[in-house]
Amino acid sequence: MIGEFIGAGALGAAGAFGAYWYLKFRDVLPMESSLQSSRKAFADFTVFARETMERAFAPEQPEHYGDITNYYLMKLHKSFPDSSILLFEKEPGQWRLVNYLKYFKAEPKLLTSYKWSAFDRSSAEGELLRFDDVRAGDYQGVEELFSVFGIKSALMCPFMPPAGAPERLMLFGAADRSFFDAAQPYLRFVASQLSSISRVSDKVFSLKKEADQLKNEVNAVVKELDVAGSRLIQRARERKALYEVVTQVTGPGGDSRNGCAAILNIVAKMVEADVVACLLYDEAKGELVVSPGSYGITDAERMLYSIPVNNQSSSSVRTFLTRKPFISADAQNDPDVLARYAKLWEIHSLMIVPISLHDRIIGVMRVGSRRADFFTPDQLEFLTIIADELAIIIEMVTLYENLSKTAQELAQLNKLKDEFLSTVSHELKTPLTTIKGFVSVILSGEVGPLNEQQIKFLTVTDQSVNRLTHLISDLLDLSRLNGKVEMEFQRMDLAELVRNSVSSMLLKAKEKNVALSNETGKDLPQVQADTRWIGQVVDNLLINAIKYAGPGASVKVSGSDKGEAVVICVEDNGPGIPQEEQKMVFDKFYRGKASAKQVPGTGLGLAISKSVIEKHGGKIWLESRPGKGAKFCFALPVPKQEA
Ligand code: ADP
Prior knowledge:
Elements: H1 2-54, H2 64-79, E1 84-91, E2 94-101, E3 113-114, H3 117-125, E4 129-131, H4 143-149, E5 153-159, E6 168-174, H5 180-250, H6 256-270, E7 275-282, E8 287-290, H7 299-304, E9 306-308, H8 315-322, E10 326-328, H9 339-344, E11 349-357, E12 360-369, H10 377-444, H11 452-482, E13 490-492, H12 494-511, E14 515-518, E15 527-529, H13 531-549, E16 554-561, E17 565-572, H14 579-582, H15 593-598, H16 605-615, E18 619-624, E19 630-637
Parallel strand pairs: 14-16
Antiparallel strand pairs: 1-2, 1-6, 2-3, 4-5, 5-6, 7-8, 7-12, 8-9, 10-11, 11-12, 13-15, 16-17, 17-19, 18-19
Helix pairs in contact: 1-5, 2-5, 5-6, 5-10, 6-10, 10-11, 11-16, 12-13, 13-16
Bound molecules: adenosine-5'-diphosphate.
Residues 544-545, 548, 572, 574, 577, 585, 590-592, 595-596, 601-607, 630 line the site of adenosine-5'-diphosphate (ADP).
């Protein structure tokens, strides 16, 4: 029983063993091997994906995209060495083979462009297309290609190229389709990677383009700023120079003679010139002549340079005639410049600008440098502005010279006139005294009786002689005052002097029917003065007031203590003096328009009075409202201890 049992048990075990192995061989082993191979495939794919992704960087240049594509295709080919990998690019109406990967012993001859509707379908659907047997479909157009590569089955996969580049398509071909299943994920992965890289590249390129554009813009702005900056500096320097020039021209105490030299100096510094000269037109000679005060030229050189204005070959003359600025980079070798003058001044670069005042051209400014090609058009423009200022100062110099020449001549004439008057007056004084003496004796009847007519004639003669004597006496006074007459200063009482003068004029005033009154107080401080000359001033003012106020008028004399000065005034209520004449009445020989015809006089009284008062350190003045009379006052200083 047990044996049976054992026997049955052994049989059962052997059956189970057999069943186990049967099942293992039939189901489990293939499953295990496929599990292993799919594990390996997974591992391989992971390695492939990791390796390729390490290189999946966005290219910096569009050309680099091709390199990345090639790298991917090479990796793919390495994973499937029995395959052929072909890369096509879409062209209008056809596809161009741009690259392929397969080992050939001899390089095959290939067409480059292909037409196969399957390409278009794959690219249109954007999906992986599978041909288990390419010949089963319409493979006209690529059959030769496929035969060269030994392709019987194919996988086609389009991918997105960078923006603007033609569409691309990858063809994975093989003699049989055994590894198509394995290759499909690789292909999909490669196509999606390349598409993503394209997309990223597009962004990178456009960003890079934007960055480049921005960089260019920034560079342009920086350059512009640079240029503007140096222009500003240049302008600032020019403004400063111009300011200095204008200060020379208009500044207080600006010496116009040296001003010209100063301007040429400023110009020389401003444009770093070695020679700066003004060539002024000398009308008498018909030449352009270098004026004194030039910069960098000796007087000897200056004398050698003068050009007739008909010499058209001279650049200075041409600028003078046409008023057009001229610039030369190498004056010694320039056919438009007279080389000998450029050599004389040892210059190469040359600028010439016209100097004109309003519409009148007066000369040119010549600026030279020993260095060739040294001056710029900007500097030429700056020079033309300076030349305008220079014109003003040259005009001022000329005016100043003419004026001082005229002033000198006038002073000389005046001196001659004074000498002449003085001599004539002296010469006339003695015979006049004799005439007056004899006329008086005859008139007195001492030398015999006179008839009425003789008396009348002699009286007129006597009056004329008196007038002449008066004039001579005034002239002599004036000549003495102009010369070195010594005043005899002494302490004196002005109130007393005024009293005496007024008393001596009372009779005259009465004759003229003028009311003369003296309101001067007795207690005026004493002054230092020459009694004779001051007496003459008071007399003169009184005589004028009586003369010009006319019959029926009243004349009032007053004196006042002003502390530092004593003021004496002679006031009348006559016709007064018109406003426009008031400034001139103290001038020598000036006589009022109205009075000159009616009242005799010399026009010297007030001039003498003014000179006398000024010699005393005092002042004389006039207040008058026409029709309301005239008031002449003078002030004499009171010595400190008296004040
Ligand atoms: P003269 O009296 O000899 O003309 P003056 O030098 O004394 O010369 O005076 C100059 C001028 O001033 C006079 O011609 C006259 O026109 C004017 N003048 C002077 N005093 C008076 C006055 N008191 N009233 C009006 N005019 C006067």
